[in-house]
Amino acid sequence: MVRLVKAKKSLGQNFLIDQNIINKISDSIKADYQDLIIEIGPGQGALTKKLKLKNSFLICYEVDLDLQEFLLPLEDSKTKIIWQDILTSNIEEDVKDIPYENLYIVGNLPYYITTPIIKHLINLKLNIKEMIFMVQDEVADRFIALPKNKEYGSMTLFLKYYFNVEKLFKVSKNCFNPIPKVESAIIKMTKRDKLPVVNKENYFKIINDSFRMKRKTLKNNLKDYDFLKIKEVLEKYGLDENVRAEEIDEEVFIEIVNNLHFGK
Length: 264
Known about the structure:
Number of domains: 2
CATH topology of the largest domain: Rossmann fold
Largest sheet: 7 strands, mixed
Structural class: alpha/beta
Oligomer: single chain
Helix content: 25-40%
Order of helices and strands: EHEHEHEHEHEHHEEEHHHH
Number of strands: 9
CATH class of the largest domain: Alpha Beta
Distance between the termini: 62 Å
Strand order of the largest sheet: 4-3-2-5-6-9-7
CATH architecture of the largest domain: 3-Layer(aba) Sandwich
C-alpha cells in the first residue's frame, strides 16, 4: 500500500486517492507520444503514473520537496520534475527545446489560487490545446455559467474568450486524503478555433466594469462610457437599457465594444 505523507494546509494539499477518478482524468487527455503534458501539483504521482503511459513528453511542477521520494523515480528521458511554483516558473523556457506538437495542461489546483493559476497560464506565449483541472465544484459552475444564472460573471466571459469550457464530472470529497470541506469537479478547457473579433483589452475592460457591481444595471456600471452607443446594441437584441450584466451574453458584449470609440 502506498504511504501517504501528511498533507500541508499551507499548500492547499488534498491528495486524490480514488483510482477510478484518476483513470477518468487520464482518459480525458487525448495526448500521444508527439505531445507535451504539463502537470501542476503531481503530489505523490498517482495521476503522473497514468500520464506516463501515454508516452508523451511530461513536465511536472511541484513545490513540496517532501514528495521527492515519490516523484524522482518517475523521471526518465521524457518525464521531468521541476521543483518550483508554477506561478513563478519560466515555463516558456522550460519547454522551448521539447519537439512537441500539442500542449496539454492538467492539475489538481490548490483551490485558493485556482483563478490566478489559470490566468497566468493563459497569458503565457504558448499554444495550449487543452487544460483539464480539478477545481471546487462551485467554481466549475461559475466557469461554465450561462446568462441569467447567478454564477455568470466576468470570469465566465474571460475564459470563454479563449476556450470552450465544459464540466466533465463531479468528484466527491471522499476521493481525497485528507477529505476537503468542499465538493470538486473536473473541467476541460479546449482552445477555441477562432478568437472573437474584438479588441481584447477593451473587451476585458468593459466586462470587468459591467460586473463591478453585479446588482446594479449595466447603465449604472458603464456610466463613464457613451451609453447611447451601448443602448443601440441593447435595442438591437431586444434588451432594455436597465438590463444587468448577468443577463447579457458574449455576442452582445462583443458588439457593444465594437460599437464604442475608445481613446488611445
